[in-house]
Amino acid sequence: MLWPVVIIAGLGLWKWRRSWLPAVLPALALAGAWAGSLLIKELVARPRPPVGGRLTVVHSWSYPSEHAAQALATWGMLALMLMAGRSARARMLLALSAALIAFVVGLTRLYLAAHWMTDVLAGWALAGVWDCLLIICYLVAQQVTAVPAGRETPAAAPRPAA
After folding, report:
1. Rounded to 5 degrees, what are φ and ψ at 46?
2. Residues contacting 109, CB < 8 A, separation 6+
3. What is the pLDDT of residue 102?
4. Within a 10 A sphere around the Cβ of 70, how many other Cβ atoms?
5. Is residue 108 exposed (0-12), middle (13-18) or buried (19+ Cβ within 10 Å)?
6. Cβ(39)–Cβ(107) under 8 Å?
7. Which own/partner pairs from 151-157 qualify as long-range (CB within 8 Å, at least 24 positions apart)?
8. What's the Cα-to-Cα distance from 160 to each of 37, 91, 110, 153, 157, rounded to whole Å?
9. Cα 158 to Cα 30: distance, rounded to the nearest angstrom
10. CA-closest candidate to residue 30, choices 68, 60, 71, 61
11. Are the beta carbons of 73 and 32 closer than 8 angstroms?
12. Does residue 36 contact residue 126 with C-beta atoms inside 8 Å?
């Protein structure tokens, strides 16, 4: 379900922001959370909770929760990319909405007995670290493409008084 959301949101962000980087960051967040979850699952190889209480069918290791990681990474990054130029109230609503979605996804993983609580927490932690790395790269790219202060074009530079 997240890939169609990310593609549609990416197209909308590209049209609104006129830049490819904000448009691809939600997709990179989703892909990184997916890949990181799979890698850590194979390294840790933690079994899931007992089958008796499980309300869903699962076939992989438990730690970390891939659903929790993908939800927070994707919705969090999407909220961050939508915050530009918005009021403080709108930014707060975007952040709270992303956090609420991620929280509900984590709760459903626990309710379905597909994960232990630590699996969900680890998924959120993975998403947080991954999104922070992406945001650092984004901010560095913004700094590189910005015109440094004091380096205006010769036509824009003030002329000395005669």
Report:
1. -85, 130
2. 65, 67, 68, 115, 119, 120
3. 97
4. 26
5. middle
6. no
7. none
8. 60, 44, 70, 15, 9
9. 47
10. 71
11. yes
12. yes
Distance of CA 32 to the CA centre of its chain: 9
CB atoms within 10 A of CB 27: 18
Residue labelled with tokens 């990179």: 28
Do residues 37 and 126 touch, judged by C-beta distance below 8 A?
yes
pLDDT, block means (10 residues), the chain with 162 residues: 91 87 93 96 89 77 93 96 92 97 95 91 97 94 74 54 58
Residues in the chain: 162
Query: What single-letter amino acid sits at 9?
Result: A
Angstrom distances, CA of residue 48 to CA of 10, 51, 68, 126, 150 = 34, 8, 15, 18, 58
Structure-token pair, residue 127 = 């998403």
Task: Enter the tokens of residue 33.
Answer: 């959370």
Q: Looking at residue 97, what is its pLDDT?
A: 97
Q: Tokens representing 97? A: 């909405």
Q: Residue 105 CB: number of other CB atoms within 10 A?
A: 20
For residue 26, say if its preceding peptide bond is cis, omega within 30 degrees of 0. Answer: no
